[in-house]
Each structure stands twice: as C-alpha cells, then as structure tokens.
Amino acid sequence: MDLFADTPEPPFYAVIFSSMLSRDSDGYAKMAEHMVALARKRPGFLGFESAREDGFGISVSYWPDEASIRQWRDHLDHRMAQKMGREKWYSAYRLRVARVERDNRFEAE
Amino acid sequence: MDLFADTPEPPFYAVIFSSMLSRDSDGYAKMAEHMVALARKRPGFLGFESAREDGFGISVSYWPDEASIRQWRDHLDHRMAQKMGREKWYSAYRLRVARVERDNRFEAE
Fold it and tell me: Are the beta carbons of A92 and B58 separated by less than 8 Å?
C-alpha cells in the first residue's frame, strides 16, 4: 500500500495526531492497525499517513469535512480504542484538526 | 527538547510535509537538522514535530499565518535545501498547508 495519501484537490480536512507511547505498549500495534483498517471503510475517508520513531509518532488522516471527522471520532470501536489509548498506551498526545488549503507534490524522475 | 510543539490557541497554520527518502541520503540528516534550527529562528515560528520510519517521514511545522510560511519557504538557505531535496534526497513528497481550527491535548497522570 502506498505510504502517501492520494488526497483530492483542496479544500479538505486533516486530523494531525501526534503521540508518545507509554512503556506499556502491549496490544497497541494490533489495535492501531485495526483502527486504520476501520477508518479506511468510513464514509468520506480520503487517506492516511503515519510514521513513528523512538516512541513518538505522527499520524495524519484526511477527510472531506468536519462531519465525517466527528462521525469517525464517535464510532463505537474507535471510542473504545481512544479510551484504551488514554488509560494505557499514550503518555501524551496532541490532536489538531485543520483545513487543508494547498497541496504540492513531488515525484523524482 | 520536547517532541511536541507547544502551539497556541487556534487558529494558526500547519505545514504537513510527508516525504520518502531516496537511497542517496548522504548529507540529509545534517541539512535537516540545520533547517529545523533555522526555522526555529524565523519570525512567527510556533513549533515543529517530526518522525521518520523506514524512510517515510512526516514533519509538521506550525506558523501564525500564511505570510510567515511564505517567508520561510522563500528563505535563501531553505530554497537551496529544497533544491537539494528534489535533486538528491527525496524520491517523493507531499506538502500540505492547512489552517488548524481545533487543538486537543492529553497528558497521562
């Protein structure tokens, strides 16, 4: 699967999720993978990009509007994963919702 | 240094830069470090977060407005680094400019 999200012409929305894992990461990788698979099936899902290095990760998911972001936020399985994240997996996170206004691409020849 | 950007209350701007390194990464790490140090001194700079995993990285820099983003984009040293990036270091990238509208935080107790 392509690591880059194949997003459409702006405007659209980005959820920028930065997180630091706690020392108790048991079950995290499996749940994270499951959540991405579930997000991909949600109405309006536009794409996902992610990287983690020494416990600090940035994941960006892309959506057409704020309504689709709210719907995904409130999905029952996602709610349970969020709760587990706060109780167990994350020592800290930031979640920023942003409206993408410009999009530039480069591919080496 | 804190890995999280200590951004102010929204609205502000995010530059979401996703990139895949090429096989020729000679000099990349040093230049990337230099660019972050230089960005931190730019007027209006609000913060920076970054992670790279198996060559695929996401860096997000935060700015108060589009004017400060343009000024940093057009900085001479940064222009030279961008050129090197396209000619040598990156096999592909996406650069998305977004207006942050909401910001949620979590810190484990």
Answer: no
